[in-house]
Design brief:
- Helix 2 packs across helix 3.
- This protein has one domain: 4-Layer Sandwich (Metallo-beta-lactamase, Chain A).
- Helix content is 27%, strand content 23%.
- The protein is α/β, with parallel strands linked by helices.
- A six-stranded mixed beta sheet has the order 1-2-3-4-5-6, with helices on one face. The protein has a six-stranded mixed beta sheet with strand order 7-8-9-10-11-12.
- The termini are far apart.
- Bound molecules: fe (iii) ion.
- The site of fe (iii) ion has 6 residues, from loops.
């Protein structure tokens, strides 16, 4: 009888674990020139993986990591058309044969153009696409519902947010994107931004709702703050935007053989 009870609980417990806590492979990578985070997400069952916001100078590092982890790169995705670095998606396509992905609203070229509510599938996992414009027209947040993790790009940074004074930026639109989309995710959702300049690596919906110095203000106060930041002209913008419109392919270093990876 005791054995039967143990078997029963084992069966129930095993079913709960297998259906609710599918593990994922996750790595956070960094570019110290632009303070950009790149994220690797992989399915441990099918070995398919994707990269979010790769930087061209680290394409070989990122591709090598996928190989080290015995993963197959399916997608190289951008949260938006970046102005501060050149994307690695074009180079990664050449290295791995993966597909590049960006939002339709970004105006950039890619193999797959996505929109609000689209789903990006890799192995047994999905990323849900939320359109979160305001920093740029084409900004997206990618949400991994099983793990309650979201990748916010520049829409929401740790105790900050992306600037809104160039590239179709609009503070009112950004405020609504954060409050109506990101802040409506479960409060324990862990948020991974595209950048951090202070050594922080992630935050949560709860933290930002309580502590973000800009986004805890009213919409009008937020607009006032954003319109008076007086930030300098982005250093790499003149080089980065034309390259990023075409997956950064014009900036693939030509003197480096691809088979060195
Ligand atoms: Fe940006």
């Amino acid at each position: 009888m005791v054995l039967q009870v143990i078997r029963f609980f084992n069966k129930v417990f095993t079913r709960r674990v297998s259906s609710h806590t599918r593990s994922i492979i996750f790595r956070q990578l960094f570019d110290d020139v632009s303070s950009t985070y790149t994220y690797l997400l992989g399915c441990p069952i099918t070995r398919e993986c994707l990269l979010i916001d790769p930087v061209v100078e680290h394409s070989k590092r990122d591709f090598k990591l996928t190989k080290d982890l015995r993963l197959q790169l399916k997608f190289a995705i951008n949260t938006h058309m970046h102005a501060d670095h050149i994307t690695g998606t074009g180079y990664l396509k050449a290295l791995s044969g993966c597909k590049s992905v960006i939002s339709k609203a970004s105006g950039a070229q890619a193999d797959i153009l996505i929109d609000e509510s689209d789903i990006i599938q890799f192995g047994d996992h999905i990323l849900k696409v939320f359109s979160t414009p305001g920093h740029t027209n084409g900004c997206c947040t990618y949400y991994l519902p099983e793990q309650e993790i979201a990748f916010t790009g520049d829409a929401l940074l740790i105790r900050g947010c992306g600037r809104t004074d160039f590239q179709e930026g609009n503070p009112r639109t950004l405020y609504r994107s954060v409050h109506d989309k990101i802040f409506t995710l479960p409060k324990n959702t862990i948020l991974y931004p595209a950048h951090d300049y202070h050594g922080m690596m992630c935050t949560s919906v709860d933290e930002e709702k309580r502590l973000n110095p800009r986004l805890t203000k009213s919409e009008d106060e937020f607009v006032e703050i954003m319109n008076n930041l007086n930030l300098g002209y982005p250093k790499q913008i003149d080089k980065a935007l034309p390259a990023n419109k075409v997956c950064g392919v014009f900036d693939i270093p030509k003197d480096e053989p691809l088979d060195e990876v």
